[in-house]
Every structure is written in structure tokens, then in C-alpha cells.
TrEMBL record:
Lineage: Archaea, Methanobacteriati, Methanobacteriota, Stenosarchaea group, Halobacteria
UniProt cross-references to Pfam families, sorted A to Z: PALP (PF00291)
InterPro entries tied to this protein: Cys_Synth/Cystath_Beta-Synth (IPR050214), TrpB-like_PALP (IPR001926), TrpB-like_PALP_sf (IPR036052)
Residues of the Tryptophan synthase beta chain-like PALP domain: 10-324
Matches recorded under SUPFAM superfamilies: Tryptophan synthase beta subunit-like PLP-dependent enzymes (SSF53686)
Protein name: Pyridoxal-5'-phosphate-dependent protein subunit beta
Length: 339
């Protein structure tokens, strides 16, 4: 374990940056840089999941659902696991994380660094097998475990509705016209979508995106297009105005395009959130490269797809999520040649 000390005050109020995606419409495109939640944590900082980890643990403790001596357990593809492990451990709980054995190395190391026990599941069995393994562990000793359950816990979308939506609305001076986010648990798109719909009186268009096929390599996202896959209770499609489908190749291409675009140019900071510019500049890049995670590339691809379909107009204000930083993926094809 590293000597990193979790500081929960760094969660929320993340920076908003302006990005050039080379689209036809004269629209402003912004992105929330979510690794600034717990930005100085080892193995890539925090992620968008830092928000819900805090929200779910806070809620459980306030309701008395989580008590001292209980082990916190959660199935995850990586980011939720590391963030729950970090926050639960600093609060004094033992943690066990169930994850597929092909999870990105940076995510695995982040979980290990937090001191959590990991149960690996053969990735070839699909993600539903990860959830089933977690349920089996709990069933063997129900009183010993507390599962935050990111797939059913209303504190997941509720946290985004209270925080992410407000941050985006205020940082864009209320001018956001499109919000784009990927679907994993559905918490980000559902909660932020609800919040922005309320704040803009329905003016903001809410766009969710999924991988275009079941076998994909866009970490954290779920293929839900057909009904034979686990559907999270935290995902409410009625909030969405449209759903886009993104290929792994397009997600990776857009992530690499961002790296190339900002190799020599600074990434413009539209709103610093709670951070000073020096901190943002220090943690925005890795090895002086602007590298983002796979789902962030997917978000950029979804925005480009909207533009290509003629869905964006001059003067629009589009916001999507940079869910995590690219150094969590240094061991996969996306960034293994660069980091």
C-alpha cells in the first residue's frame, strides 16, 4: 500500500475544460474532468465513481444500514471498486471487491493499494457472472457484509442529480443544450439528466450512449440494447431524449485524437471547479500527454456522431464526461504504446 491519505473534500466540483473535437457545427464542447475527484490518489487519481462511492456510503451510514465491523463488498469493472475501497477503508471498514480478471491494470492496482481483497471472475463468463459471484459470497454469510449495490442504490443517480447536474449548469451559466454520458449503471446519465432537465426546464437534450455490441472494450459501459442482459435499476431510459451506439474503434480513435490535438497546446480550462489552475495543470496530463480513459473516448465519439447526424446547431453548448484518466489503461491497446 502507498502512503496516500484519502481526502474526501476533493470529491465534487471538478473542472470543466473546453475541447476541440473537429466538428462541423459551431458549437461549444466541454467535458467534466472527473479524475479530479481524489485527484492525487495513486494509479490515475479518482474518477466519476468517486461521487457515487461517497454518496452511497454517506447514505448507508446516515440510515444505519452500514455499521462498524461489517465488510463492504461490491461487484465492479474497476472504478467503483477502487473508490469504494478507498472511502470505506478510510472510514475503518474491511473491503472486498469482485471484478473481472481482465480489468485494466491501473484499476486493479488502485483497489489493491486501498487494501481491499479482490475476487476475480473469468471475464469470458460475462459481467453478469461478476454480479452472481458477489451475490454468492454474501449469501454464504449475509450478516458479515454490506453491499452498496451501485446497480440498485438510488443514492447513485441521486448523487449526480444533486451535484453533477448543478455543477454543469452553473459552469455553463445555464446554457447547456446537450448532456452526453455513457451507460454503465446508468447512474450518471439518469441522475445528471434528471437534474439538468429540471434546471433547464427541459431545454437540455439528454443523450446516453452504449457500446454497439456485447463484446466490446469500452471499460465501465454495458450493452443493454437487447433484453437478455442485466438491466440496472439505477438506469431510467425515460430520462433520455436519445440513445447513441459507439464502437470500440471509434472510442479509441477519439481518445487518441484528443492526445494528438493537445500534445503541444494547453487544454483550455472553462471552469476550475474547486481547484486552482496550478493543481489542474499538474494533474491534467500524464507524462505531459493528455490521455483519457476508454469511456471518455466513447463520449467524444458520441458527440462527433451527433454532429455528423446533423443534431448539433451553431451556438449549442455540449457537455460530456471524462470519467477517468488514461494511465489507468496503460496496459491495454488504447495506451500501451504511449505510456
Amino acid at each position: 500500500m502507498s502512503d496516500y491519505v484519502v481526502d474526501e473534500s476533493t470529491i465534487f466540483e471538478t473542472p470543466l475544460v473546453e475541447l476541440d473535437l473537429d466538428i462541423e457545427a459551431d458549437a461549444d464542447v466541454y467535458a467534466k474532468v472527473e479524475w479530479f475527484n481524489l485527484y492525487d490518489a495513486p494509479h490515475g487519481g479518482g474518477s466519476v465513481k468517486s461521487r457515487i462511492a461517497k454518496g452511497m456510503l454517506d447514505g448507508a451510514e446516515e440510515r444505519g444500514d452500514l455499521e462498524p465491523g461489517v465488510t463492504v463488498i461490491e461487484p465492479t469493472s474497476g472504478n467503483t471498486g477502487s473508490e469504494i475501497a478507498r472511502l470505506a477503508a478510510v472510514r475503518g471498514y474491511d473491503v472486498e471487491i469482485v471484478m473481472p480478471d481482465n480489468a485494466a491494470g491501473g484499476k486493479v492496482e488502485a483497489v489493491r493499494d486501498a487494501g481491499a481483497e479482490i475476487h476475480f471472475v473469468d471475464a469470458n463468463r460475462g459481467y453478469d457472472a461478476v454480479i452472481e459471484r458477489c451475490e454468492a459470497i454474501i449469501a454464504a454469510d449475509p450478516d458479515a457484509y454490506f453491499r452498496p449495490n451501485q446497480y440498485e442504490n438510488p443514492d447513485n443517480p441521486g448523487t449526480h442529480e444533486r451535484t453533477t447536474a448543478r455543477e454543469i449548469y452553473e459552469a455553463t451559466d445555464g446554457e447547456v443544450t446537450h448532456f452526453v454520458a455513457g451507460v454503465g449503471t446508468g447512474g450518471t446519465i439518469t441522475g445528471t439528466g434528471r437534474g439538468l432537465t429540471d434546471l433547464t426546464d427541459g431545454a437540455a437534450e439528454i443523450v446516453g450512449f452504449e457500446p454497439d455490441e456485447p463484446l466490446h472494450a469500452i471499460d465501465g459501459l454495458k450493452y443493454l440494447k437487447t433484453g437478455d442482459h442485466y438491466h440496472p435499476d439505477t438506469y431510467d431510459e425515460s430520462v433520455l431524449d436519445r440513445t447513441a451506439y459507439v464502437t470500440t474503434a471509434d472510442a479509441y480513435d477519439q481518445a487518441r485524437a484528443l492526445r494528438e490535438r493537445y500534445l503541444d497546446d494547453a487544454v483550455p480550462i472553462a471552469d476550475p471547479g474547486q481547484h486552482d489552475e496550478e493543481t489542474i495543470r499538474e494533474h491534467l496530463r500524464v507524462d505531459d500527454q493528455f490521455v483519457v480513459g476508454t469511456s471518455a473516448g466513447g463520449g467524444a465519439a458520441a458527440v462527433v456522431g451527433l454532429d455528423e447526424a446533423g443534431e448539433l446547431d451553431d451556438g449549442d453548448t455540449v457537455v460530456f464526461m471524462l470519467c477517468d484518466r488514461g494511465d489507468k489503461y496503460a496496459d491495454i491497446p488504447l495506451w500501451e504504446e504511449y505510456l
